[in-house]
Amino acid sequence: MERNGIVTMKGNALTLIGPALNVGDNAPDFIVLDRDLKETGLRDFSGKIKIVSVTPSLDTPVCDMQARRFNQDAATLPDTVIVLNISMDLPFAIARFCTTAGIDRVKAFSDHRDAAFGNAYGVLIKDLRLLARAIFVIDTEEKLRYKEIVSELTDQPDYDAALAAVKQILG
Q1: Catalytic: which of 21, 27, 54, 63?
Q2: Exposed site from 4, 31, 69, 134, fewest CB < 10 Å?
């Protein structure tokens, strides 16, 4: 499934591949790779509230800021909440970035091998084979409780809205 006009990069329209998920939908499972090339999926975080921060590439300034911001926010959240970052970066680049940037609270993963996350969540950019900048909040029942696909790839997401969704789940 292809969707046009959802995101742009510097004003140029891009095509997303995958379904248009809605709040209330069951969160699709996926397989991504950690920095040691180990497969990881949604099921590995069952019982947790998940903030899924999606970035095109950690080697860009906005993605760097997004990862750092969520790393800071993760320090203020209870252990029942986990923050995942998913990008198309190679696992080796993710490991280097996290070490250099001091990202120790966000778990960063690569969707490079299969684009399983991008296809399942409708954020794979056909034109670039990158992921669109997005945030998904998934509750402990694996329901999508918050979704933001940032319309311009070079803009930051609404961090406060995502964190408000988490606080609502926490009660």
Answers
A1: 63
A2: 4
